[in-house]
Design goal:
Number of domains: 1
Distance between the termini: 88 Å
CATH superfamily: Single-stranded right-handed beta-helix, Pectin lyase-like
Oligomer: single chain
Shape: globular
CATH class: Mainly Beta
Structural class: mainly beta
Helix content: under 10%
Mean pLDDT: 90
Number of helices: 2
Number of strands: 27
CATH architecture: 3 Solenoid
Order of helices and strands: HEHEEEEEEEEEEEEEEEEEEEEEEEEEE
Largest sheet: 25 strands, parallel
Radius of gyration: 23 Å
Low-confidence stretches: 13-25
Strand content: over 45%
Length: 320
């Protein structure tokens, strides 16, 4: 009887190993989607899938999903390191929902927790009866991740944020490059309940938000370079009043036509020595005021072009 039990146990273990290996081998490091694909396919180049969601389950950790042609490939929730490359500018229509949700829990099989989103249009437009309006919630919602890179994307028509990182852990880096965000409530918003979250933007254009262009919330840090923040409904770039340990650096950018303030510093309660918001070589024009604070401090390298109402005079690094 003992030998039979041992034999059965061995067979069960072997079956488990074979099943695990078969599952791993079924996932490719590169898969494809196409407008004429089918999610029942293996997502190979010659037999592509129809949606991002269909392909992601067949793509291994750290792999890449490429689009073979322009098309709309649906919304997707990301729970592992992955690259979505839209190739010819593909689209996600997210009426009444989030475009992309990134929620990668810490695990030993995916230590980098890295997501790349490239060449994708994410559109939140929808309808309310006969009225066309923005019904999408967030273009990209980041709940848990290590690194998120958004590159060469166009995000528009969301009732909340174009890109939102609302975290409960430390150490997330969000990079936005060569990307346009248009007609949302807030363009980019980052915050975390503990530690830090770092936002970097390069050559971004954030325009026509109902509220702030960029909001750097609790424990948020940012480096904003070579970007345009224009025609927004409140602040161009604002640090929240609860941000008492962050830093924001704005360089070689235009912040214009924002009716509240072009640049607003956060709460300096925990840091009263160095400026929390530092601006260098920027064009700041036609705003409600150039500089304002929510208890924080603004520093200038003295090489900015500023017109209109100054508001709070920069301190720490010289005048405007």
């Amino acid at each position: 009887m003992t030998k039979i039990h041992a034999t059965l146990k061995t067979v069960a273990v072997l079956c488990f190993i074979i099943a695990t290996c078969s599952f791993a081998s079924a996932q490719a490091t590169r898969t494809w989607v196409s407008g004429v694909g089918d999610d029942a396919n293996p997502c190979s180049r010659t037999a592509p899938c129809k949606t991002w969601a269909g392909a992601i389950s067949k793509t291994f950790i750290g792999g890449e999903i490429d689009a073979l042609d322009p098309g709309g490939f649906g919304t997707v929730t990301i729970t592992k390191s992955i690259t979505l490359d839209g190739c010819c500018i593909t689209s996600i229509l997210a009426s009444g929902t989030n475009g992309i949700v990134i929620n990668i829990t810490p695990n030993g099989n995916d230590p980098e927790r890295r997501v790349v989103i490239r060449h994708i249009t994410i559109n939140g437009t929808g309808s309310s009866g006969a009225v066309g309006q923005r019904t999408g919630l967030k273009g990209i919602s980041i709940l848990q991740a290590g690194n998120v890179l958004v590159e060469n994307c166009y995000i528009n028509n969301f009732s909340q944020e174009g890109i939102n990182a609302n975290l409960t852990a430390t150490g997330t880096n969000v990079s936005v490059k060569d990307t346009n965000i248009f007609n949302c409530n807030v363009g980019i918003s980052v915050q975390t309940t503990t530690g830090f979250v770092l936002l970097t933007t390069d050559r971004a254009r954030i325009e026509r938000m109902s509220n702030n262009g960029i909001t750097i919330g609790t424990h948020g840090f940012a480096s904003i370079r070579d970007s345009f923040v224009l025609f927004n409904g409140a602040d161009g770039i604002g640090m929240g009043a609860t941000n008492n340990d962050g830093r924001v650096f704005v360089e070689n950018s235009m912040v214009s036509h924002n009716p509240s303030a072009a640049l607003r510093a956060g709460n300096a309660a925990a840091d009263t020595v160095n400026p929390q918001l530092v601006v260098s070589n920027c064009r700041i024009s036609s705003n409600g005021s150039a500089f304002a604070t929510a208890g924080g401090t603004v520093g200038s390298h003295g090489n900015n072009s500023v017109d209109g109402t100054i508001g709070v005079s920069p301190t720490g690094l010289g005048q405007q």
